[in-house]
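To the wet lab folks,

You asked to see what we're planning to order before we commit. Fair enough. Below is the target structure as tokens, and below that is the sequence we designed to fit it. If anything looks off to you, flag it before the synthesis order goes out.
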């Protein structure tokens, strides 16, 4: 069960089909070219976009992370061997059972989200996505935890700066570096 001290990566669950893959097969995929620098977290929280109809625009479920590996899209989704991105690399995040949050976290003003780091404490207390943003001194602790996770990651080593940066801004900046090939 999600605890207050858990490091959480909020990510988009693109479709109900992807939610079923996570629920039944126990994994979630992130394209390497769009992945945040640190994927070694305790939990994933899944933001459901408008593809979920009336259940869209919120986070309803989380899942514990048990590990990750690198595969091509074709290896992950064998029925999509002809997909245009079939040979691109993806992180396959191994998940435990999906857990329903006691109260869904609503989007409110936000409608688009890629990745956002937060903690179990913030997630359990949040009413809206804006409530997930870690502030003040706790942000320094989150930043330190992300730095340590990045340095200890087996598949993807990164050098994160010592600066005090908002985790949302960090995720956006790291995503931009990936797009530029850095």
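Sequence we intend to order:
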């Amino acid at each position: 069960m999600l605890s207050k001290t858990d490091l959480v990566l909020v990510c988009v669950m693109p479709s109900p089909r992807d939610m079923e893959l996570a629920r039944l097969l126990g994994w979630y995929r992130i394209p390497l070219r769009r992945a945040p620098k640190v994927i070694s977290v305790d939990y994933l929280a899944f933001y459901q976009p408008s593809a979920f109809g009336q259940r869209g625009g919120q986070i309803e479920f989380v899942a514990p992370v048990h590990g990750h590996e690198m595969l091509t899209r074709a290896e992950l989704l064998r029925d999509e061997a002809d997909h245009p991105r079939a040979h691109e690399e993806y992180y396959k995040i191994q998940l435990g059972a999906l857990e329903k949050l006691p109260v869904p976290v609503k989007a409110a003003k936000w409608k688009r989200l890629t990745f956002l780091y937060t903690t179990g404490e913030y997630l359990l207390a949040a009413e809206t996505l804006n409530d997930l943003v870690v502030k003040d001194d706790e942000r320094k602790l989150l930043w330190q935890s992300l730095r340590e996770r990045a340095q200890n990651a087996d598949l993807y080593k990164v050098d994160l700066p010592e600066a005090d940066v908002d985790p949302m801004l960090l995720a956006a900046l790291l995503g931009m570096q990936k797009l530029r090939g850095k």
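Structural context that might help your review: The two ends are 36 Å apart (CA to CA). The beta strands are 7-12, 27-31, 43-48, 58-72, 89-95, 99-106, 115-119.

Thanks,
Computational group
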